[in-house]
Amino acid sequence: MGIEQTLMPSPEAWLARARPDDPVFFFCPLRLAQVAARFLSGFPGLVSYAVKANPAPEMIDGLVAAGIRAFDVASPAEMALVRAHCPEAVLHYHNPVRSEAEIAAGQAQGCTSWSVDRRSELEKLRHLPRGTEIAVRLKLPVTGAAYDFGSKFGADPALAAALLRRVVEMGFTPSLTFHPGTQCRTPEPWARYIQAAADVARAAGVTLHRLNVGGGFPSDRGEGHPDLEAIFATIAIAARAAFASPPELVCEPGRGLCAEAFLLVLRVKAVEEAAVFLNDGIYGGMAEWRDLGPMARLRVISSEGLPRGGACRDRVVFGPTCDSLDRLPDPVALPEAIREGDYIVFEGMGAYSRALVTGFNGYGARRIVRMSAAC
Ligand SMILES: *Cc1c(COP(=O)(O)O)cnc(C)c1O
Question: Which atom of ligand 1 is least distant from the CA of 215?
């Protein structure tokens, strides 16, 4: 489906005119540019976008327009997508388990950095050109993240040191990478990981070419605007403190870069005393609510585009499919006055939303409307 454009300055104005019965994402290029500028000017190193968080073509185009040139890709399809929108993009292939066919695709697409977290997968990379950057992925027990990214990938410090030595032995350029866990609200996880990375490099006797501090940068889910600059400052200070001569730094935000750029607007299909039924749910754009919990940044508007104010009451929120699991995990506070046909506008819905839509039962938010530059 091609992107729709509107010059309307707010979703309210567009909804009152279009009155869509299907779920709609609104893409705000200005918000994307603002967040990208914070990363590009504040992060003390290279900023690489983790494509899986939102692979919508308009997101990739918006990031390229904002000056992002490096991308963390996990599959041949993501590589092809990025190349189609930015032929000169720098691709980091950071899915540490790859089939032989995927390795060939990564080479054909010109991936310049490859992560590994186990010996067998490192040996599979032996045919890459000497000097290619191989980033060993380190994991520590998680703290501070909304859920654990280390439970699937990552080598513990002892294995990471052994892998680093082997990377050098094979003639590759050694780097370290980690992911502190998604939605880290405080800088501490990065400080711990950076110190651990320095210890691993020292134990291995290897000088790191680069240190990739992963994603994990938070979005605002209702707790207030995240202090990205405080996280950037901690990362810079921790790197200077931990390494005699700090490696170049890379970060690969997904959520932190893309969340603010999309709003999700759902329509109320039915209202009951204690529940509402919406036209999308956990099998669609709200898939993450199961893992991250409720998100408080929402407002209800009438189909004329007017705000529904007044007292609120908790209601169970059901999605549209015929599956009893299709409900949000916690009740949501909604205005008493909410009516069938109203819209609920959710802010900050760019990350892990459209990317996870299943299409189950024929539902799922896919449509994107691009707001005017002022949105
Ligand atoms: C998913 C992922 C990211 C992005 O994580 P966020 O928490 O969305 O910032 C970065 N790097 C790797 C390797 C990932 O798998």
Answer: 9
Cβ-contact 232, 46 below 8 angstroms? no
| pLDDT over 60 (residue 2) | no
| Beta-bridge partners for 322 | none
pLDDT score for 10: 83
Structural domains in the chain, CATH included, are 3-26+262-371 (2.40.37.10), 55-253 (3.20.20.10)
Q: Is the pLDDT at 337 greater than 60, yes or no?
A: yes
For residue 213, report the distance from its CA to the centre of ligand 1, in Å. Answer: 10
Q: What's the gap in Å between 307 CA and the centre of ligand 1?
A: 36
Nearest CA to ligand 1 atom 9: 215
Helices (H), 144-187: 157-169
Q: What is the pLDDT of residue 4?
A: 74
Q: What are the pLDDT digits (tens) for 298-314?
A: 999 999 999 999 999 99
Q: What is the pTM of this model?
A: 0.95
Strand partners, 249: 211
316 CA → ligand 1 middle, Å: 31
Q: For residue 143, is pLDDT > 80?
A: no
Ligand 1 atom with the shortest distance to the CA of 115: 13
Angle between helices 157-169 and 188-204 (to 10 degrees): 50
Number of H helices, E strands in the chain: 11, 17
Distance 351 CA to ligand 1 centre (A): 11
Residues having CB within 6 Å of any atom of ligand 1:
50, 52-53, 72, 94, 179, 182, 214-217, 252-256, 351
Region 255-276: mean pLDDT is 97
* Whether the predicted pLDDT of 361 surpasses 60: yes
